[in-house]
Amino acid sequence: MISGIFKPFVWIGVSMAAMAVVFACGGTETVTEIVEVEVPGETIIVEKEVVKTVEVPGETKEIIVEKEVVKTVEVPGETVIVKEEVVKSVPKEVVVTEKVTEYIVEEVVRPREPEGNVYVGSSLIQPLVQLQFKDANGTVGGPGADLEIYEGIIRAKLSKPGVPPSQEFYVPDLASAWSVKYDFSQITFDIRDDVSWHDGYGNLTAEDVVWTFNDSFREGSISNAGEQLSPGHRKGWRTDGTYTAIMEVHEGQFDYTWGVYHGGIGWDSTFGIVCKACYEQLGEDDFITTPIGTGKYRAIKWVGHDVVETEAISNHWSGQVPYINKVYNYEMPEQATREAALKTGELDFAQVPVKRLQDVVGSIGGSALEMGMPFAQTIYMSGNYWAEACPSCSDEEQDLVANPRPGYTPDSDHPWIGRYGDDESMENARKVRWAMSMAIDREKILANVLGGFGQIAYTAMHTQFPPGDKYFQDEWIVPFDPELARQYLAEAGYSDGFDVVFWATASVPEVWDPEIADAVGEMWQEHLNLNVTVDHSPYASRRPETVTKHMNVPWLHGWGRPPGGSKAAFFCPTPGHLGGVEMPKEICDVGYRNDTEPDLTTRILNNVEFQNYMQHWHLNPAIVTMSGYWVQQPWVKQWHPYFGSYFNNPSSVIIER
Is residue 11 a contact partner of residue 105, using CB atoms and an 8 Å limit? Predict the structure, then answer.
C-alpha cells in the first residue's frame, strides 16, 4: 500500500470555547496558523485559527482576546507546562465572528547536535544563480529555500500533506512582523536584527531585503521570482532605518494574496533573501556562484547538474537545531538510476514517477508522499502573441504592433498561429488548434502512459475546475473525435497535414512526462497526417525563447493554481517568461482583477471568464493530470515537508537506520 507517513506526530483536534464578536472593516476570514513554542527538552507545534489585522485610518477599536493553551508533555524525569497567550487587535465596522479551533502537532525532543547524513536523488539540479536579476530558473527561492540555505521574509503555513497552505495568511521568517497601511499603498516589514549570514559575512539588514526584491523586477530582469509578482507590487522597495523595509504598492493594485509570491519556503521558486554586501565584496561573477544564505543549512558545495551538499547550522537565529548534519542532494536525471539507488539503500529520498510507485515502494518497504499540486499536462500553442502593448516592457518593446514579437509568425508554416485582427486567419488557426486537441485520446494516454494514475483534463485551470466541479463548463470538454478533427483541419486548408515540432523536455519527467508528448505526436500523425518531430531537448536550452518571445512551437508544460489563483501573468504581456501566448488587454484585465480582488468567490468567477476565452480559442489545451511523488525509505522516521513539488525542509528529517 502506498501512503504518506508522519509517524512521530500526533494530530489532536481541540475545540476551544473561545468565541469573539467584534466590529471590523472586512468580512469573516479564518485560517490556520502554526506557532512553534520551544522549552528545554521539547518542541510543541500549535496550529490555531485567527483573523488578520488591517490598519484603518482614524480610530482603531482594539478587542483583546485572551486564551490559554495548556499542554502537558511527559518527558523522562520532568513534566513541562507550555502556556500561550493570544492577543489580537481588530479594527471596527462590520461584524466578524471568530471560532478558535486548534490542531496540535506534538514532538518530544532532547537538546542535541546534528548528526548523520541524508542522501536525496533529484531529477534536476540547476546551477546556482545567486542574483535575482539573472536567476531565470529560480534557484535561490526554489531549491535554495527548499534546502533551507536561504530564507524568505515570510514562509508558508505548514499544512498537512497534499493540502495547499493559506494564500492570505503567512508565518514570520526573516521579517518578525509586518503591517499593511490603511490605504493599501505599502507594507512595512520589521526585519530581525539577530540574523547572520553564513561564513562570517556579517548581519542581515533591511538593505538586503530591499535590494533582493528591487533587483528582481528592474528593467531587463529575467528573474523567475520577479516575473510572478503582481504588477501592483513591482513599484519598488525602500528602507526606513537599519531593520525596516517598506514595499510600495501602486494605487488600487494591492494584491490580497501578496505573500504567495513574496515568501520563501512553502511555495515553488519564489524569494530567498541574498546578501548585498557580499555582492559588493565578491563582485558579480563570484557572487552568482558562491551560496551565502541565512538558513538552517549552509551550502558547502553547489555544482549544477551534479550535487548540492549542505551542513547544519547549530546556532541558527531561530534556536531550532536540525537533526541531520549533512544533506547530499544529487542530480540523477535517469529514472532507472534513482530507482536502483533506492533499492540498494544508497538514497533516503527520491523523486519517482507516479506510474512506478507500486513497484518501487513495494521493493523497498518504504512509503510515497504526494508533493505539491497535481500538474495538468498542457500544450502551449505558442506564437499567438496577440497583445498590442506591453506596458511593463522596456521602451522599445512596449508597442507590440510596431515591434511584434519575433515568434509571432502567422503563416502557412505555423497554421496554429492566428493573425490577430484578421477574422479568417484567426478562425482557421482556432480550428487547427481544436483539431490537434480532438485528435488526442486522453483516456488511452491516462491508461497506457500513466497506468491510470491521474485524471483526464481539458483545461489549464483543471486544479481549480475539474470535471464535476460546480464551476466546470460542459463546453470545456474536448471529445476524442478524429473525424471531426480532420474536418476542422480541412476547413482550415490543411487536409494533407503539415510539419510541426512539438517540444517536450525530458529534463523533469516527474513534472512534465515526455512520454505523454510521444503519445500525442503519434496520435497527430495517425489521425491528422501531421509530420511531427518531438523535441526532447533540455528545459534550459529552450526556456530562454519564452523570455525573448521567439517561442512559436507547441510545447508540453503546465502547472496548477489553488482556487482563485490567476494565470494571467503567464498569458499576458510581460518582459519575462511566459507560455508563448500574449492575449489582448480586455481578457488580461479579467485575469488581473484577481490581483486586487479580496473575495474568493469573485476571484473564481473571474477565472471562469478567463478560462472561457482560453478554451474558445484553445490556446492551452490540457491532456491529463500528473501528481509529483517522493519516495522515502522505511528508516525515515520523520519528515514534515512544506507544500511544494521538491524535497524540502530537511531540518525536520529524523533517520533511524
Answer: yes
Q: How far is CA 173 from CA 75, 266, 562, in A?
A: 29, 12, 23
* Residue 636 confidence (pLDDT) above 60: yes
Contact call for residues 347 and 118 (beta carbons, < 8 A): no
Global confidence as pTM: 0.73
Q: At a CB cut-off of 8 Å and minimum separation 6, what does 566 contact?
A: 591, 592, 594, 595, 603, 606, 607, 610
pLDDT tens column, 168-207? 889 999 999 999 999 999 999 999 999 999 999 999 999 9
> Among 333, 341, 354, 374, which Cα is nearest to 460's?
374
Contact of 122 with 646, CB cutoff 8 Å: yes
Looking up cell 480582488 gives: 597
Question: Cα separation of 89 and 65, whole Å?
Answer: 8
pLDDT at 111: 61
Spatial distance between the Cα atoms of 296 and 147, rounded to a whole number of angstroms: 9
Query: What would the pLDDT profile of 37-88 be if each residue is shown by its tens digit?
Result: 343 343 444 444 444 444 444 433 333 333 333 343 333 333 333 333 333 3
pLDDT for res 54:
42
The CATH superfamily of 117-348+633-655 is: Periplasmic binding protein-like II (3.40.190.10)
Of residues 112 and 653, the one with the higher pLDDT is 653
Q: Which residues pair with 154 in a beta bridge?
A: 172
Residue type, 655: I
pLDDT category of residue 31 using cuts at 50, 70 and 90: very low
Nearest to 623 by CA among 447, 455, 372: 455
Weakest-pLDDT range from 303-312, 397-406, 435-444:
397-406
Task: Please count the residues of the chain.
Answer: 657
Q: Is 78 exposed, middle or buried (0-12, 13-18, 19+ CB in 10 A)?
A: exposed
**pLDDT-based confidence at 653, cuts 50/70/90?**
very high
The three grid cell numbers given for residue 575, joined into one nine-digit string: 518582459
Domains in the chain: boundaries: 11-107, 117-348+633-655, 374-627
- Encode 382-406: b = buried (16+ Cβ within 10 Å), e = exposed: bbbbbbbebebbeeeebebeeebbe
Alpha helices in 255-302 (DSSP H): 259-262, 276-282, 284-289
C-alpha cell at 265: 519556503
Listed in sequence order, the residues at least 6 apart from 119 whose beta carbon sits closer than 8 Å to its beta carbon are: 328, 330, 346, 347, 348, 349
CATH superfamily of 374-627: Dipeptide-binding Protein; Domain 3 (3.10.105.10)
Specify the DSSP class assigned to residue 625.
E
**Rounded-to-integer distance, Cα 566 and Cα 585, Å:** 15
Q: pLDDT: is 457 or 228 the higher one?
A: 457
- Predicted confidence at residue 152, as pLDDT, reads 97
Q: How, if at all, do strands 326-331 and 117-122 pair?
A: parallel
Encoded amino acid at 268, one letter: D
- Exposed, middle or buried: residue 539 (CB in 10 Å: 0-12, 13-18, 19+)? middle
List, in order, residues 6 or more apart from 157 with CB less than 8 Å away: 31, 32, 33, 34, 165, 166, 169, 170, 171, 266
- What contacts 424, CB < 8 A, 6 or more positions away? none
At 69 the pLDDT is: 39
Query: CB of 416 within 8 A of CB of 498?
Result: no
Residue with cell string 532532547: 110
| Cα 153 from Cα 182, distance rounded (Å) | 21
